[in-house]
Every structure is written in C-alpha cells, then in structure tokens.
Design brief:
The chain is mostly beta strands. The protein is 10% helix and 42% strand. Helix 1 (24-43) runs antiparallel to helix 2. It binds calcium ion (3 copies). One calcium ion binds next to loops.
Length: 430
C-alpha cells in the first residue's frame, strides 16, 4: 500500500489542520536519546568519544525526523470561510467557465459560490423563501462548459403537508456576469424538499432529481411514500417543466447517489427502506429490483464507488446515524466505523492510494470523545481490513462534503462545510 502514513491512527490538531503532532512514543525516544547523550558526556569527557556519541545521536534524531515526516497527513487544510451559518449543501462545478471547478454552497439564507483561484465569495441569490435554504445542484447539462444551477429552500421538515410553508424548487437563470445575482424561476415542489442532483439520462440528456425527506402528511417517517420527481428542463425555462415520477414508495429519503453506466446514470436512493435503484428507459423511470436493492438497514447517506470491475457501496446508517457500513458487489455488509455523532457526509473516491477506493466520512455532532470531524478510511487491497485516519479532528462539524480535484494536479481534494463550526475548508491532497 502506498499510503504515506504510519500504521496507527494519527493525531490532528484541534482546528483541523491536517498537520500532525509527534507521537508520544517518538517524544519519549527523543528524550531518552538526549539523556543518554548527556550521561555519556559526563562519564567520558574525552573529546573524540564525545564527538562520536554526538554524531550517533544526531543520526538517530535524523531518522526520527524522517519517520515523523512519513506520518504527516497528505491533506493540508485551507479555510475559505469562517462565517458560514449552516452550510447545508455543497456542489462542485465550473460557474464562470474558466475550466476550473468552483465551489457552490447552500447556506442558511444565501446560495453562494467561491471562485477557484482567489476563492472570492459571490451571492447567487438570497432570502429566496421565509425558511432556510437546504440544497443546490450544479452541472453543465448543455455542454457549454458552465454549470446550470437549481436550488431547494423553505426547509421546514416538521411541515409535511402545506406546500406554501414547506419546500421550494427554483432554477437559477444565469446573468451575463455570473458574479452578479442570478434570477430564480419557481418550479413545482413537494413539501420537505431536501436534496437535488442533475442526473444524466442519455447522451446529452439530463433531468433534475428532487428528493424530499418525507411523503405528504408523514409523521415519524410513516404514511404516504415520498414523491420523487425528475424535472426536464424546457428550452424556455419559464415554461412548465415536464415532471416524471421516479418513485413514491420510500420514507425518510435522506440522500441519493448517481452511478455512471455507459452514457447514462442510475439513481440510488437511500432511506428508511434501505437502498432502491431506478433507471430512466427513455420514456419513464422504473425500479431496477423488486423490493429494495439493500434492505437490511436504513440509510442516511449513500455513496457508490466503481474501480477495476469492483463496486463498493457505503452508507451512514441509520439517518443521522452512528455507523459507517460498506457493501461489496455481493452485498455483504461490513461495519467499518461506529460512534459518529450524526454522520452526515460521505464520499468514495481515490484519494491517497490509486489502487483502491477510499471512503471519507464526516459527522456534525460530538462523538463519544466529544469531537466532530472527518475521517478517512483506507482499505487493504481485499477491502476486508480498513485503517482509519483523521482528516479533521474536531475542527469541522461536518454538514456536507465533496471530493474533487480542485487544482488539477491529478489528486482529489476534499471540501467540507461545518454547521456548528461555521466554516468551509478545502483539504488539499499534497
Ligand atoms: Ca471556474
Ligand atoms: Ca451549461
Ligand atoms: Ca488536487
């Protein structure tokens, strides 16, 4: 394994910089080395012996410094914003068309983007509804190299019936200068809109998947199923958008994943019933499996990775849960971490080892040790054993995270937004 860490879990500094302190064993070793050096010096004041002992000690220290350098995390945190109110949702995409991916964020009252390079913050739209914003989708769906943006707001999960008080979906019309405010166009919405993504449904074809958290009139995650719609953008975005019903059988549908297959993507939805998979056949959405694809646990977050013929599905279980579970292609479940305080962010990607897929997970409430943060889970080649590393130890009450190569160096970086910590950080993969 080419992972540049030592074998044990590493210690990060409280503000989340991924620089690491010396391990206690290393500190004790250095102390003993110096003690030995002083003792030798006292017993053998002979100059040549003294010099010989000093050279040996210096060499020993060099080895220790080298070993400690090996233990440096390859991730270096950069704080982009320390005034984030909640940081509900993140998206990555090129907003201004300079071919560099920018960061988009749904914050409490504003939808904003941070320009790659100077990381200057621009407001897309603000005070869209009376309640909080909650989600944002950004993807270039017409091939001009610039993202199309949709947003969800009026976040009011306690109101599952009244559409005037709960949920909103808007498409944002791009202005001539993308650093100036964008024009919102209101679209149909269900109550409790919570997540949205542009999904590829064919060559150059995309739909906007909009995922509410609850079905209409639901209480305690029970009642009518969640109505998941896929929106087709018309030429004139102010004209009615065609709505395709994807599914109405699930509850507590907290998140979704898009999985590339040829020139289209499959939709994985995670919720109370587990994970279900949906496909668009050119005319309508159909469910791939009878029942659920995974039904042994309920999901809060779901992510799928594919590499070298292998597929890995990861989930935070249950919603706002404490567990990170991984499923292989045969759906064998393996819990690789427990004890998160409201696990809320997840990614599968190749970050530190090109030969495997690694998992990044973040949680937003203090865990058993009183810490929030982000951890990296690195598998052995067989994916049977996992080693855990801190990306951010107690400096990120993680609400959402995304993985993308933000500086084009071929290494994937991590972006995360924190609720209680009010921050937005890039963790550069060095
Ligand atoms: Ca850009
Ligand atoms: Ca575009
Ligand atoms: Ca990079």
């Amino acid at each position: 394994m080419s992972f540049p860490f030592s074998g044990e879990e590493l210690t990060g500094r409280p503000r989340g910089a991924s620089q690491l302190t010396l391990k206690p064993t290393t500190e004790i070793f250095i102390f003993l080395t110096f003690s030995y050096c002083i003792r030798v010096d006292a017993q053998f004041p002979n100059f040549y012996f003294h010099s010989f002992a000093m050279i040996r000690c210096c060499l020993l220290l060099l080895v220790l410094v080298a070993l400690n350098a090996r233990a440096q995390s390859p991730f270096q945190a950069q704080v982009l914003d320390e005034k984030v109110q909640i940081g509900y949702g993140l998206a990555i995409g090129d907003v201004d068309g300079d071919k560099k991916p920018d960061i988009l964020m749904a914050d409490k009252k504003q939808f904003v983007w941070y320009r790659n390079g100077d990381w200057k913050r621009f407001i897309l739209v603000e005070n869209l509804t009376t309640s909080d914003n909650v989600c944002i989708a950004a993807r270039d769906i017409d091939g001009d190299g610039k993202v199309e943006i949709a947003v969800g707001a009026q976040w009011n999960p306690g109101e599952t019936s009244d559409t005037t008080k709960s949920g909103s979906v808007h498409y944002l019309v791009r202005p001539g200068d993308p650093t100036t405010p964008w024009l919102p166009v209101e679209l149909h919405h269900e109550p409790t809109i919570h997540r949205m993504r542009w999904i590829q449904t064919g060559p150059k074809q995309y739909q906007l998947i909009v995922l509410p958290l609850h079905g209409r009139g639901n209480k305690d995650g029970a009642g009518r199923g969640v109505r998941v719609f896929a929106y087709e953008r018309p030429k004139d975005v102010r004209q009615p958008w065609k709505l395709n019903l994807v599914d109405s059988s699930m509850h507590l549908t907290h998140n979704m994943e898009l999985v590339q297959e040829g020139n289209r993507e499959r939709l994985y939805i995670g919720g109370k019933e587990g994970v279900k998979i949906f496909d668009f056949n050119g005319k309508q959405w159909t469910q791939a499996n009878p029942g659920a694809y995974i039904k042994d646990a309920s999901f809060g977050e779901v992510r799928v990775g594919k590499k070298g013929g292998q597929q890995l599905l990861a989930g935070i279980q249950p919603m706002h849960g404490t567990m990170l579970a991984v499923y292989d292609a045969s759906l064998k479940r393996q819990v690789i971490a427990e004890g998160f305080g409201q696990g809320h962010a997840l990614a599968i990607s190749t970050l530190t080892d090109k030969s495997t897929m690694q998992i990044v997970a973040g949680w937003r409430e203090p865990d058993a040790d009183g810490k929030v943060g982000i951890k990296l889970f690195v598998p052995a080649k067989s994916y049977s054993d996992w080693t855990t590393y801190w990306i951010d130890e107690n400096g990120m009450a993680c609400e959402d995270l995304q993985v993308a190569d933000l500086n084009g160096d071929g290494k994937n970086d991590i972006v995360a937004a924190g609720r209680a910590t009010h921050n937005l950080k890039i963790y550069w993969n060095k």
